[in-house]
Amino acid sequence: MISLNNVKNVHFVGIGGISMSGLAQILLESGYKVTGSDINDSNLISKLRKNGAEVTIPHNPIIVETAELVVYTAAVKQDNCEIIRAKELGIPVIDRATFLGMIMKDYNYGIAIAGCHGKTTTTSMISIIIKNAGMDPTVLVGGEIEAIDGNVRVGKSEYFVTEACEYCESFLKFYPFVAVILNIERDHLDYYKDLEHIISSFRKFAKLVPADGALVVCSDNENTLNVSKDVECKVLTYGIKNKADFYARKIKYDRLGHPSFEVMHRDKKLGTFSLNIPGEHNVLNALAAIAVAYNAGIPMDTVKKSLKEFKGTYRRFDIKGVRNNITIVDDYAHHPTEIKATLRAAKQFPHQKIWCVFQPHTYTRTKTLFKEFSEAFYDADNVIITDIYAAREKDTGLVKPSELVDSINKYSANAVYRNDFRCIANLIAHEAKPGDLIFTMGAGDVFKLAPMILEEIEV
Length: 459
Prior knowledge:
single chain, alpha/beta, Rossmann fold, UDP-N-acetylmuramoyl-L-alanine:D-glutamate ligase, Protein-Tyrosine Phosphatase, Chain A, 3 domains, ten-stranded mixed β-sheet, six-stranded mixed β-sheet
C-alpha cells in the first residue's frame, strides 16, 4: 500500500492542470520535493516554480528517475515516456484521483462537491465561508478565485474542501465526511453507458459518506433525490421549486442580474442573502453552500457576508472587458444545461442583443447530446459555432459543427459556423452594436477569443 509517509520526492506528469497544480502546491507547503512536467508552460506552473517545484517542458523520461512516486493526470496516456520509464524503474505510478484520495484520507472533515454542473462555483462558495468562519481549511478548487489567490489553499485544520469529478468514476476514490450532489444528468458518455450508469456511480459516491456524516442533495433534480434514498448518513435537501429542508423564496434581481433571496430552513427564516454573480442556478449553488455551513454550525451572518463577498471564479460569467459599450464575457459552459442557465442569466443583464460564440467540447459529447445542444441557444440572438475541440479524442467524422448549426437553426434560426478565431473576432467587431453582450463559451481554448474581440473593436 502506497503511503505519503514513505516518500519525499513526488513527480507530477501533467503538473499544469488545475487540480494537479493544486495537489503539487499542497505537497510543496508540506515539505515534499516536487518535480513535474507538461506540454506547455502556464501561469500555474510559474507559481509552482516560484514555490520550489522543478518543472520540465515538455515531458522527459530522465526527470522521473529520482522520484519515489509518480502521479499522472487523466489526460496523460500510459504510453507517456515518463510513465514508461517510472514503471521500468519500479517507481509506483498512480492517477490523480487516487492521489487526491490519499491526501483527503488524512483529514477528518473532508467536504466533496459533486455534480454535472456548478462544482467549481459551489466549492468556491463553501471554501470562502469556512475560511471566513476561522476554520482554516485546505481547499482544492477547479478554478481560480480571488479569496484564496488561486486554485488552492493549504490550511492547518481538519477541514479539506474539494471538487469531486464524476468522469471515469474518479470521485469513488475520495473520502468525504460531507458530500454534496448538485445535479445528475447525461454527460461523459464516452465513459458512461447511459444515464442509469451515471446514477449508479453517484449512488456509490453517496454511500462513501459515513453514518455520522451528511449528504446534501438538490431536491429540484429527481436523480439526486434517488441516489440519497438508501444511504446511512443524514440527508439534507435544498431547492427552489420542490419541497426541501433549505429553500429560497422571494428571489429578486438587481440591474446586473444579481439575485437576492430569503432562505428558509423548514419553517424558520435564516435571513436574506445577496450574490454578486448572476442567475437562478447560482441561487441553487448558494443554497447548497448554506446547507453545508448550517450543518457545520457556522453563523448565518458569516455565511451572508461570505456569499456577498464572492465575485465568481475564472471562466464563470467572467467579464473580460467593455469596449464601445460592448461587453465581452467568457464562460466555461460546455453542457446544454450550463449553456441554457448562463444565457438565461444573461437575459437579466443589461443588453441589446446577446451573442454566443460556442466551441463544442469533444465529438462524443456533441453527438450524444446533439438534440439538447440544438435547443440550448434559444436565449441568444446570434450564435457562432466553432470547430469542435477534440480534447482527449480524435476526429473520426462522428459529427461536424456545420451539422450542429443546421440543427440549431431549426429551433432558433440564428447560428452560423466559423472555423477561425481571428475571423470571428473581426465579424463581431464589425457587426456588434453598443449595448450588445458577447459570450465566448466552452471548455476548450475559446477563452483566447475574448482578447481578440476586444482588440478588434475600434474605440
